[in-house]
Amino acid sequence: MTDALVLIDPSASSLELADLGSAQLPVDDLSAHRGDGIFETVLVRVDEPSGDAVVVARDRHFARFRDSASALDLPDPDPALWNRALDTVIAEVRAQDPESREFGVRYTFSRGLDSPRGWAFGVPIGEAVLRARAEGISAISLDRGYDAYLGGKAPWLLIGAKTISYAINQAAGRYAAERGADEALFVSHDGIVLEGPTSNLIIRRGDRLLTPDPAAGLLWGTTQRLIFDHAGELGLGADYADLRLDDIRTADGAWFVSSMRTAVALTSLDGAPISRDDALTRALQQIIGTG
């Protein structure tokens, strides 16, 4: 992968190309020191035969970015500045690696120290992602530690914001891996299915796609909403619902969906196999790839 990095000064509305391999962030920056910041990761695909780079769900990601900034009382990010940063990273990645046809870009907004700062850089699509798309993944359920719908009563928990405080998410992934699973599935303390550490969950039940209500205590997914927008093209309805673990185990298909992995089939949960719908998996991946 390339070393494309853009540093963003929101106060001056300026960008600067920098070396991804060199030190850039002071250790007392509040993003590093306290996890006080937000981020988004977008999937970029090169359209054939035009050769144009397409950012999947660009506007949805930025809308969520602004919502996260508001939840953290960060300054409202300027769309023109952040889009310019995103496009600059895309251009750098393609200049350094003209054969690249798919990659990600992560952009981050930190409270900084004396003033906010931001950055954006290229992210490769790894073999693990490609394997998950092709083969699916297994998961174990983990208690998230709070009851469903707590966020409405405790907004300071930032349950619906995409912050860079991902220590719990990373710990959940390691815990699952130590127990032989590929992924974790968070469940509220009162038994409502929520999300994966870095993904949303969608199931199929008959002719309907179902996903947990974001208000239950999860991040509203850009990829999940893209799929729901196109569900009618697949002859399917789409709804938000409170789901329990038995709903997942008995589903006609289940998927973890996210920007980089797109849609990956959930093949088993807590050791119990889940029905697979490989044709729908391919259709969902196609929707996301052209979204």
TrEMBL record:
Keywords: Lyase. InterPro entries: Aminotrans_IV, Aminotransferase-like, BCAT-like_C, BCAT-like_N, Class-IV_PLP-Dep_Aminotrnsfr. GO terms for cellular component: cytosol. Pfam families: Aminotran_4. GO terms for molecular function: lyase activity. One of its GO terms (biological process) is carboxylic acid biosynthetic process. Belongs to the class-IV pyridoxal-phosphate-dependent aminotransferase family. This is 4-amino-4-deoxychorismate lyase. It comes from Brevibacterium celere.
